[in-house]
Amino acid sequence: MILDWLQALGQRALSFFQRLGRGHITLYYLLIAIPSVLLRPRLLLQQIYSVGVLTLLIILVSGLFVGMVLGLQGYNTLVRFGAEQSLGTAVALTLLREMAPVVTALLFAGRAGSALTAEIGLMKTTEQLSGMEMMAVDPNKRILAPRFLAGVISMPLLSLIFGAVGIMGGYIVGVGLLGVDEGAFWSQMQANVDMREDIWNGIIKSMVFGVVATWIAIYEGNDATPTSEGVSRATTRTVVHTSLAVLGLNFILTALMFGD
Amino acid sequence: MAQEETAPLVRIRGLRFARGERMIFDGVDLDIHRGGITAIMGPSGTGKTTLLKLIGGQLRPLAGTIEVDGQNVHRLSRDRLYQLRKRMGLLFQSGALLTDLNVFENVAFPLREHTRLPESMLRDLVLMKLEAVGLRGARTLMPSELSGGMARRVALARAIALDPMMVMYDEPFTGQDPISMGVLVKLIRRLNDALGLTSVVVSHDVQETASIADYIYLLSGGKVVGQGTPQQLGDSDSAWAQQFLKGEPDGPVPFHYPAPDYVEDLMVGSEGARS
Amino acid sequence: MTHARTVEIAVGAFVAAGLAALFLLAMKVSNLNVVGSDEGYHVSARFDNISGLRVRSPVTMAGVRIGRVSEIRFDPNTYQAVVTMRISEQYDQLPLDTSASIYTSGLIGEQYVSLDPGGDFEFLQDGSELMLTQSALVLEQMIGQFLFSLGDGDKD
């Protein structure tokens, strides 16, 4: 009984480490294929379009609403202490340090990551990747690496746009609807938001998330069982694993960056 | 020179390959001669597609050697293997067309990847290949708009785009209506002779394959169980060859998957239910 | 070809939007445009207690921001805090006997240094020290004193 249980545990651990190993091999091939992507910017452009530009709308809308909610809730809390002038600071710091990188990464996993996994998984299922290999075209260079690089480039841009739009949302609610003084809103924000400490650290976070989210999406697609069920499971795994990885990493990064 | 012409293009010796616990090839010897059409036939599940992937270097054998044009496929460096693959075309059963490109771009794909031809010359080449398979008029269609037979013909045009020395066909006739089957049969023969190709056809469609093949290997149970020209095989007294060529349900290839004795099995089942 | 062009334009617009967002955040939201300027001169002041004053807190005169706190040190000899401030160079005619106080904006708002001009005819220069200072009012102390005096009043 205990032996069965131990065996099951061992099997799980082994398959986990196998997946981890395959994932790192995938990452290795992605990284060494990057120079050949840079030689063919047109492929990269096409992928930035489908990974980044097509995710832009959901980022704009979500950013605006998240910023507006932060404005509303922040005002309700701050006004009790007569500190509603600090609304700009509260909204900007919450957005730039946490919300913009994390929510962007989560939305990215749902919109672009799942699409990447499904696309690559289907290309594998329909033998397109295999066929490419037989035409002496390396799918790592032609298909996977351009998508990886596009994700890594797009994520910080999306996160910046999310942050800017979110602050606009906070401004609309705070200054436009609730009557916080406009000058105080901006000047308090400027006094307390630091370029390096807050904005740059937020960008670093979203770069890390960009690597992780795109890596997971590409690995799951490339590792999918070549059946329609296998692809659908891989797509689900992409969203779940990316979300967990982003939230976990966010805690670690926050502790490292703002911990002291 | 003369010797090189007569040496087989593909030479397989002592090939062994397993998928998990299941042995797929257990000591296969095969020669594929230049300029001819060699058919590899056998019942479903004998690993015919696997054999093509082994020749193309996508899978590694457990033991044995595969030489293509004198080079051991599994000893080549990655670059040399890719060089060799440019001279081999493989026609997948599904066609494996790139779904986001139209017919023209699919055929142009290997040319764009491997050559730096000016656009006008590339266009001429692609149209020549499409003309050869009779689909010059379909160049703007997307793969999703093609019938199965047309998709295979486009894949064939793509496979010969780089003027390879050898084309391998994976089940080219499966699931085709009689007309497109006839078209494919004619195309394989015509392209082989016109372009001086060496063709390998993997199939279990006996009539069609026998009508174009110069030499046939019969595979079963991981071994070569018969070989010869279609004529020789038809005349052979091998029970296996007769069963396969005539499509008899029972014979050396049993109708039943290996199982314990029927009556005993039923008894066990009732005991199992009782306890 | 037109499709490729659309893609390129869209990607170009996307990247431009991202960079514009970065520019907006840097200029409008963060302190980059304020602190980034290295111009101005430094003056220092000693306080017994600076409470929650931090580096980058504003320095104001008559309610107008004229500079920022650039450094806060503890002097182990006098047990005082030494606050160095950077004043914009356009305000280079502050009297030498200007006094500095630490105030809080709002009840729990941030703390800032307020300068009150004196009447001297000489002006502050780089490296000058403000002699007249008033420390931060610590809320807890004030409440304590208030309650204490309230108690005294009851006895009378």
Stretches of chain C where pLDDT falls below 50 for ≥5 residues?
A: none
The average pLDDT of chain A is 91
The pLDDT mean of chain C sits at 82
Task: Specify the overall morphology of chain C.
Answer: elongated
Question: Main beta sheet of chain A, described?
Answer: none
Domain tally of chain A: 1
Quaternary structure annotation: heterotrimer
- Record the strand order, biggest sheet of chain C: 7-1-4-3-2-6-5-8
Count the beta strands of chain A. Answer: 0
- Residue runs with pLDDT of under 50 for 5 or more positions of chain A: none
Provide the succession of SSEs of chain A.
HHHHHHHH
Mind describing the biggest β-sheet of chain C? 8 strands, mixed
User: Approximately what portion of the residues of chain C adopt beta-strand conformation?
Assistant: 25-35%
| Percentage of residues assigned to helices of chain C | 25-40%
Shape of chain A: globular
Tell me the number of structural domains of chain C.
2
Number of helical stretches of at least 4 residues of chain C: 3
C-alpha Rg of chain A (nearest Å): 22 Å
Strand content of chain A: under 5%
Number of strands of chain C: 8
3D structure, described in words:
The complex is a heterotrimer of chains A (260), B (275) and C (156). In chain A, 89% of the residues lie in helices and 0% in strands. With 260 residues, chain A is mainly α. Chain A has one domain. The model of chain A has no long low-confidence stretch (mean pLDDT 91). In chain B, the strands form two sheets. A six-stranded mixed beta sheet of chain B has the order 6-7-8-3-9-10, with helices on both faces. In chain B, strands 2-1-4-5 form a four-stranded antiparallel beta sheet, with no helix packed on it. Chain B is α/β, with parallel strands linked by helices and 275 residues long. In chain B, 36% of the residues are buried. Chain B has helices spanning 2-6, 48-55, 78-85, 103-114, 119-132, 148-159, 178-195, 206-212, 230-235, 239-246, 262-274; strands at residues 10-19, 22-32, 37-41, 63-68, 71-72, 88-91, 166-170, 198-203, 215-220, 223-228. The longest helix of chain B is centred in the C-terminal third of the chain and has 18 residues, at 178-195. In chain C, strand 2 and strand 3 (64-75) form a beta hairpin. Chain C starts with a helix and ends with a helix. Chains A and C meet through helix 2, helix 5, helix 6 and helix 7 of A and helix 1 and helix 2 of C.
